MICOS complex subunit (Mustela putorius furo), 198 residues
Amino acid sequence: MFKVIQRAVGPASLSLLTFKVYASPKKDSPHKASVKVNELSLYSVPEGQSKYVEEPRTPLEESISHLRHYCEPYTSWCQETYSQTKPKMQSLVQWGLGSYDYLQNAPPGFFPRLGVIGFAGIVGLLLARGSKIKKLVYPPGFMGLAASLYYPQQAIVFVQVSGEKLYVWGLRGSIVIEDLWKENFQKPGNVKNSPGNK
């Protein structure tokens, strides 16, 4: 065992030593001239000046280049539109998958309620014949009424939130109308409608 360790340590310790090696020509060999760098290379460098000459474009290359320059604004617009709509589409797909999972594991009684709410919308559409405003108001109103019968807590929250929003919109509208009224009809130069001018 001692011999194996001694043999393994010996070559390893020699690799850590550094030696300087000086080469000297043999005394009986004739003196040669130094070798140039060009002679050492496997490939010789061509002498002379090289110049890059661009080949003339073919008509096909010209038409493809013209087409690319013509389509560049449209492709950039498509890429920008895609980058803007991709997150929306991903969220829509996630919503669809969530709805599908919910419908697969629907609570008991969900589908009959959904049928009644849909039927109420169809009845509202049938009662709204002849008027476009009725077609916009009756089906959602009937569906909302049927849904509020099955889901009263959610209907109360929806009415509260939508009522607050309608109140805010009404205030904004009244402020805008009041400002327009003051600007157009109560100007100092507008004496046409004043009671003193008869």
About this structure: The chain is about 70% helix and 0% strand. The longest helix spans residues 59-104. Residues 151-183 form one domain.
